Amino acid sequence: MLRLEGIHAGYGQTTILQDISLTVDRGEVVTIVGANGAGKTTTLRTIAGLIQPTRGKIFFEDRDITSMPAHEVVDLGITLIPEGRQLFPDMTVEENLSMGAYRKDARGRQAETLEHVLSLFPRVRERLGQSAGSLSGGEQQMVAIARGMMARPNLLMFDEPSLGLAPIIVQQVFEVIDAITSTGTTVLIVEQNVFNTLKASDRGYVLENGEIVLADTSEALLTNDHVRQAYLGI
Ligand code: ATP
To answer: Which fold has domain 2-77+154-230?
Structure first.
């Protein structure tokens, strides 16, 4: 479904990603594991069309999207749930959710999608009329995920969904991600919570200093010596 071939990308004169090649097949859940600053967010932003690669190609459903602007990438059904949630704090939860449905394929089916999304997030349903900025961190993360779902994405990308959340909330976030993936939604996820994320995914890539140093099934990565030492603290 998604294929990156030899991607180089960065900011200004600084190259961060070096020769990144990866694939995500339809229905798969794929994780990118890496330390702070390894280039995980940069990878997701490059796929989303927010950063233009300097070399390499990106294909989505066999279409070359390498130079496609972000708003067109969104219309293809590639949705990024950004790190730090980035909700509109003064708007209600319901208004935030409707902002997620602006994609062409989602607009006409907003009411139906909202009902489906709220069935996954009962807590969000209770907070629909409240301003997003008044929610707890965990509730805001749920709204951010729900807003991403409102786009009826073909590929859903999560950037650090558990960042800064209490352990019990982290568990709830992973339960929601499990519920989303069990409906067959294709997912690419970036996380520092490596154990939980690999448990929830099919395959993973390990990114270090902008380069992919390991690629394997999640099961194999969980028992890999380097992953255990560097990312699982075992
Ligand atoms: P983290 O988990 O800390 O978010 P990450 O793996 O997602 O890490 P990136 O955010 O992709 O890492 O950052 C990779 C490198 O790019 C870092 O060295 C960072 O300082 C640099 N970087 C990120 N954003 C910018 C920017 N807007 N301008 C210049 N350099 C940037």
So the answer is: Rossmann fold (3.40.50)
